[in-house]
Amino acid sequence: xxxxxxxxxxxxxxxxxxxxxxxxxxxxxxxxxxxxxxxxxxxxxxxxxxxxxxxxxxxxxxxxxxxxxxxxxxxxxxxxxxxxxxxxxxxxxxxxxxxxxxxxxxxxxxxxxxxxxxxxxxxxxxxxxxxxxxxx
Length: 136
What we know:
alpha+beta; 21% helix
C-alpha cells in the first residue's frame, strides 16, 4: 500500500544519459544530431535509459546504436535533475572498438574533436562536460 501511495504522490522521471566519449588520443566524439535545434546541432552521444537498465550500459548502448562504436563507461561526471521530469546523468567513456557507421535517422555526422577545437553549434552544457567545468 505504501508503494502505491508513493507512486501516485511523486513525480516519475526519465533518465537522460550522456557520454563524454574519448579515444586514445584524448579526442572527444561529437555528433551532429538531426532533431536538435539547427543553431545547436552538435553534442555528445545522449539517450534515455530503458526501465531497469544500469546507466553505464545506457551510454554504451546509445553510442553503439547511433555510431556503431563500442565504449566502456567510466567515472560519473554529472548528476542532477533536469528539465521538467528528467534526471541528467553523464559518464566519461572510452572507445574500445567498433566501426563508425552512423544511424542516419538520428545523426547527420560524427567527428572526433580535440577539446581545444570544439565546433560552433555545440550545446553549452556539453562543452562544460568536455572541459570538466561541470561536476557531480
